[in-house]
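User: quick one, sequence for these tokens?
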């Protein structure tokens, strides 16, 4: 009898502790603001789904809000400041710029609102943790894959994303670090930026390919560091009749990019686990709010996907996760 009573008491205490952890300071439900870089790319939809899963499992409320386009820096700063003014329990942020968001994050922390950074790093040390792919290592994977596809020789072009984006900058650095170790590989262009949209990336890719005489053998392989630049380059290669002729390694996955991989117009994609990123970012914030220690850096991993590995169950789970249970149809 005493044993059953003790077990009941311990269960009750545990339940009360969980409930208290998931309450905000004013006694209401814990509300966590999750702020992506943008809301249109497929990558962010998977991040959102992971965040929703964590919120349901941990019994907290999340509010998902970010700028529409990934070049709206002022819009993202405004979103951060709005959530600070609302007094949310915590902010989970993917900063558009590694320096421009440092001051707004400092402001949140001074207002006793903890911050967890995800996807792309931030200058300063005010935030509690950084949840993301090891982008430098992922960039190296891309470089090693493209070099292997080319037999460690040839002319390579890089279409970068945009200045100030720490995540893609690290991928570009890792890629270039890998290919420059190979004496028979020449980097013919690494100073062009595709910008925040597929449209701008398409225009830049067209210009890059033309400037390097890609149609006449001036480019043997290309690398792009995110979803929008990869798709923009794909469109430019198709328009120029070079898709499948120039070796192409991109980054991130979407339905159209996976289709291009099947068609042989993209040779490989370095794929993150955006669902896991969203899940881990919210889970980490819940632990911060509960006063638990958290790791300053949480690596969510990346893998190289090609046509041969595309249909493996473990690949499908990352490339095409079922988002319907979390976001609806």
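Assistant:
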């Amino acid at each position: 009898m005493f044993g059953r009573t003790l077990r009941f008491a311990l269960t009750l205490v545990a339940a009360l502790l969980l409930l208290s952890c998931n309450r905000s300071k004013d006694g209401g439900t814990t509300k966590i603001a999750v702020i992506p870089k943008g809301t249109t790319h497929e990558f962010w939809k998977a991040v959102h789904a992971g965040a929703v899963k964590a919120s349901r499992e941990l019994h907290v409320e999340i509010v998902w809000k970010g700028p529409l386009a990934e070049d709206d820096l002022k819009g993202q700063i405004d979103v951060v400041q709005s959530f600070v003014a609302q007094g949310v329990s915590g902010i989970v942020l993917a900063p558009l710029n590694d320096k421009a968001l440092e001051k707004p994050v400092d402001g949140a922390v001074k207002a006793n609102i903890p911050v967890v950074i995800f996807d792309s790093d931030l200058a300063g040390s005010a935030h509690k943790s950084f949840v993301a792919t090891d982008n430098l290592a992922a960039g190296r994977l891309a470089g090693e894959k493209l070099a292997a596809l080319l037999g460690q020789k040839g002319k390579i072009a890089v279409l970068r994303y945009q200045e100030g984006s720490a995540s893609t900058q690290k991928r570009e650095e890792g890629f270039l670090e890998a290919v420059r170790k190979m004496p028979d590989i020449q980097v013919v262009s690494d100073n062009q930026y595709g910008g925040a949209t597929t449209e701008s990336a398409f225009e830049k890719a067209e210009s890059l390919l033309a400037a390097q005489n890609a149609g006449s053998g001036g480019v043997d392989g290309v690398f792009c560091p995110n979803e929008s630049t990869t798709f923009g380059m794909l469109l430019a290669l198709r328009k120029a009749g070079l898709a499948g002729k120039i070796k192409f390694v991109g980054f991130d996955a979407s339905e159209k990019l996976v289709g291009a991989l099947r068609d042989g117009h993209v040779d490989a994609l370095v794929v993150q686990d955006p669902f896991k990123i969203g899940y881990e970012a919210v889970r980490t914030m819940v632990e911060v709010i509960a006063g638990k220690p958290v790791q300053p850096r949480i690596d969510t991993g990346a893998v190289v996907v090609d046509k041969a590995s595309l249909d493996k169950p473990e690949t499908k789970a990352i490339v095409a996760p079922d988002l319907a249970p979390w976001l609806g149809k």
